[in-house]
Structures are given as structure tokens and as C-alpha cells.
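Propose amino acids for all 292 sites.
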């Protein structure tokens, strides 16, 4: 896909940001998100205890979920909502320290927005995705879906194999947990929109480690198939790192009255596993079928 648009008409868009932060309650947070004119902000690694809501300065509201009281302050995440959207919030679901969801109705469309904080290890990844699956399957029929957060994995850029799930404009790195995430997205008709738009590398990589010379794209924005045609742009905004080694990831989504309703559950995207043709037994079955 081509390069994105500039910030569209504020009355016709919602501006999202997925970003890993170590301390969401720093005084600079609200000033920073207002500087970038953000409206829904995903926060990860908040190290918060328990779950609930907190009113911040200038009318912003933090919906957070962390570890139970008495446990070590690890993980934790939240969603920060702009004052103009607060009255449109319908439901808040603090699932656990890695998944939190919020349902809201900005205009004529209901959104289920999920903030996620993936595990580092591949062993825990299936459990993490099962939690996400439960949240999505519990969302009311017809809701548009937005996932955002630090997924701790690489999804590559093989847009031929994963057509409709990812784009070709991104780093090629792919991990086993990334394949699990791609298959999860395909099964729920979701698109990872970070690499759908063509940008310079500086506006694609979301995490960096200067001392080791490393960088990667692990903070992802994911939308349901009905929203993807209305994504105007998605890119990294450098210069707002604060106390983290993650860059801002900002996306503009146009919410117009002309958008079609998302009726029923999404159909599964079928992926053709061409790599299985390397197995002689699979080739033999296919050749026998064709010969019959």
C-alpha cells in the first residue's frame, strides 16, 4: 500500500497509539498525548496493582489492569481515553495483567478496543493468544475490533502467504510466536496494519536498543476487516520515547457514517501452506487427487 495521509478531519477520525511505557502516571503523559492529538492510547508495562479506573489531569481517564495485590509489580497495562470519548465508554473489562478491553461507541459504530502485552517466551504465547481469543469471541456481534500493544514478536512481511493479514512494507524477521499471531489474526479476519503503509525504516521500527545496534517492530496495531479500508495511515512517531525504548506507533482511522455494518462473525481467512509441498507424502496425495 502507498504512503499515508496527514491527520484527517478531527470530526471524521479516531487517532490511536500503541506504546510501551514504564510509568503511565508520569506528569508528562497527558501533555505528550495531547501534543500528538491522540484519543485512545494503549499503555504497556505499567507495573500496576489491581484493576480499575483513574481520572488524570485535563479530563483524561486511565483504565488499567495489573497484577493482584501481594504479587511482584510486573507487566500490567491500560487504555488511556481522551475526555471527548469518556462519555462514549460502554464497558471496561480488566482481563488480567496482559489483556484489557474497552467497549465504546464513538458515533454510530461500536468498537471493542483491546490493549495487549505479550510474553517474552514462546511457551507462554499460546495461552496469551487463547486469552485474546476469549475476549474477541465475547465481543458483541457487529463490533469493530482494534488490538494494540507490545506483542513481543516478529511477524515478517510475507504478504503473499498471509494475504490480507500483513503487508509487505516492513522488516522480514519472523519468529515462531509471530506465526502463531499471524494464524490467530487470519482465523479472526484481522489485519496487522503496521506494514500496510510504505514508510522509511525510521518510521517502521517500534523498539530499539542503541548499545547493541538492534531494532525491531514488536508494537503492533491490528484491526478487523471492516475497519482496515478506513485506516488512513499508520507509522512510528519518533521523539516521544519518555522512559522507554519503544517509539510511538500512531494510526488514523476514519469513522464515517457510510461505513458498512460488521454483520456476524468473521469468516476464517484460509492460508495455503505451500511449504507442506516439500513433504513427499503430501505431494503424492495431491498428485493422486489430480490424476483421479
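Proposal:
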Amino acid at each position: 500500500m502507498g504512503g499515508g495521509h496527514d491527520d484527517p478531519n478531527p470530526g471524521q477520525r479516531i487517532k490511536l497509539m500503541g506504546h510501551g511505557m514504564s510509568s503511565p502516571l508520569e506528569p508528562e503523559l497527558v501533555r505528550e498525548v495531547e501534543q500528538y492529538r491522540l484519543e485512545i492510547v494503549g499503555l504497556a508495562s505499567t507495573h500496576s496493582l489491581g484493576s480499575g479506573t483513574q481520572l488524570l489531569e485535563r479530563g483524561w481517564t486511565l483504565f488499567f489492569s495489573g497484577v493482584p495485590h501481594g504479587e511482584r509489580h510486573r507487566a500490567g497495562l491500560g487504555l488511556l481515553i481522551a475526555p471527548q470519548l469518556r462519555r462514549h465508554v460502554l464497558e471496561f473489562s480488566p482481563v488480567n495483567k496482559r489483556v484489557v478491553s474497552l467497549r465504546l461507541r464513538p458515533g454510530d459504530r461500536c468498537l471493542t478496543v483491546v490493549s495487549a502485552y505479550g510474553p517474552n517466551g514462546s511457551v507462554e504465547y499460546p495461552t496469551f493468544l487463547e486469552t485474546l481469543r476469549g475476549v474477541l469471541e465475547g465481543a458483541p456481534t457487529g463490533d469493530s475490533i482494534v488490538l494494540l500493544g507490545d506483542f513481543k514478536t516478529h511477524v515478517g512481511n510475507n504478504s503473499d502467504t498471509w494475504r490480507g493479514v500483513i503487508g509487505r512494507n516492513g522488516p522480514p524477521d519472523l519468529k515462531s510466536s509471530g506465526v502463531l499471531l499471524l494464524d490467530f489474526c487470519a482465523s479472526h479476519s484481522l489485519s496487522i496494519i503496521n506494514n500496510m503503509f510504505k514508510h522509511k525504516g525510521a518510521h517502521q521500527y517500534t523498539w530499539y536498543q542503541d548499545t547493541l545496534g538492534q531494532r525491531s517492530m514488536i508494537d503492533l496495531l491490528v484491526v478487523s476487516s471492516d475497519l482496515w479500508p478506513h485506516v488512513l495511515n499508520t507509522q512510528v512517531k519518533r521523539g516521544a520515547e519518555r522512559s522507554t525504548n519503544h517509539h510511538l506507533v500512531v494510526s488514523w482511522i476514519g469513522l464515517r457514517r457510510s461505513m458498512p455494518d460488521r454483520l456476524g462473525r468473521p469468516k476464517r481467512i484460509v492460508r495455503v501452506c505451500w511449504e507442506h509441498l516439500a513433504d513427499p507424502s503430501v505431494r503424492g496425495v495431491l498428485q493422486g487427487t489430480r490424476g483421479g
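Residues 1-12, 263-270 have pLDDT under 50 and may be disordered. The CA atoms of residues 121 and 264 lie 34 Å apart.
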